Predict the 3D structure of the following.
Amino acid sequence: VQLQASGGGLVQAGGSLRLSCAASGRAFSNSAVGWFRQAPGKEREFVALINSYGGSTTYAESVKGRFTISRDNAKNTVSLQMNSLKPEDTAVYYCRAYMYNAWGQGTQVTVSS
């Protein structure tokens, strides 16, 4: 499966963005999907996870209450709605399909203060 992440951009603090991870090659409805991020000079860190059919989600403490992960298996996509963005959310965001150990190419999110 190939993953394509999109939706990043430049936003002011307090603003919102919606990231999308689209799968091609095969359906990934049976795979848990996660979002990770990597800021300059830092290690890649976990952001959010959704299980294969969307019944369970997990979030990093730093984004809990601000970010929402969801999926549409009919469209083969997983989304990350990011609200109340902070400058410390600035990073390249990656999606991952666990079953296939596949990663998207990353999308840049920049939050200005």
